[in-house]
Amino acid sequence: MSRLEEQNRHSDEATVVRAAEYVRMSTDHQRYSTENQAEAIRHYATARGFEIVRTYADEGKSGLRIDGRDALKRLIEDVGAGTTDFKAILVYDVSRWGRFQDADESAYYEYICRRAGIAVHYCAEQFENDGSPISTIVKGVKRAMAGEYSRELSAKVFAGQCRLIELGFRQGGPAGFGLRRVLVDQSGSIKGGLERGEQKSIQTDRVNTTVASRLRVHGLNVAGPVRTRSCACAWLD
């Protein structure tokens, strides 16, 4: 290797910035899967000269608050303690950082990082998070939109659940004793039973409860009576 090539190699190594990636997924929605986020972040890192050395992942966690988001808590704690070995944090977009109902809370956690000299980059956003007036305005709007999306979705989901309950369908939770969950189609015809942990796969299908089989009730009685407060009650078929 020539001296010029050697100098260029050392120059390239010197310009690489060590970074951590933060990914979050609240549901199994494919667009926001942690794998898809990580892939987009790595493309961004390659194009911008970042080397990802740490991954903080919150899977199946809501972005409404920091409670329960152990990875984000650990990230903020590491930054605050000054024990990090990276100088940047790469996040897919503003909503993955959080859908906080108070947009200032999202800004507060980012400020903790910036105060420690660690920049937060939103890889899929169309603005550069460079502290300019334009980026600050756009980022503020994005944070408000992220929080508003959760509020609107919550209202829509609640209204939809109320409507389905009025139609006689069950909404969440295990079936009561002596009952079992069944899958019904749009016409109300039973398509089959659902065992514990199983979920419907077709959006238009609904879940209802029906009386359990005599065999299952008999099995419960063989197991012994269930004591409710001061009396022992047998299962009835």
UniProtKB/TrEMBL annotation:
Gene3D superfamilies xref list: Resolvase, N-terminal catalytic domain
Domain (Resolvase/invertase-type recombinase catalytic): residue spans on this chain: 18-168
InterPro entries per record: Resolv_N, Resolvase-like_N_sf, SSR_resolvase
Pfam families named in the record: Resolvase
Coiled coil: none
GO molecular function, one term: DNA strand exchange activity
CDD domains on file: Ser_Recombinase (cd00338)
Protein name: Resolvase/invertase-type recombinase catalytic domain-containing protein
Organism: Edaphosphingomonas haloaromaticamans
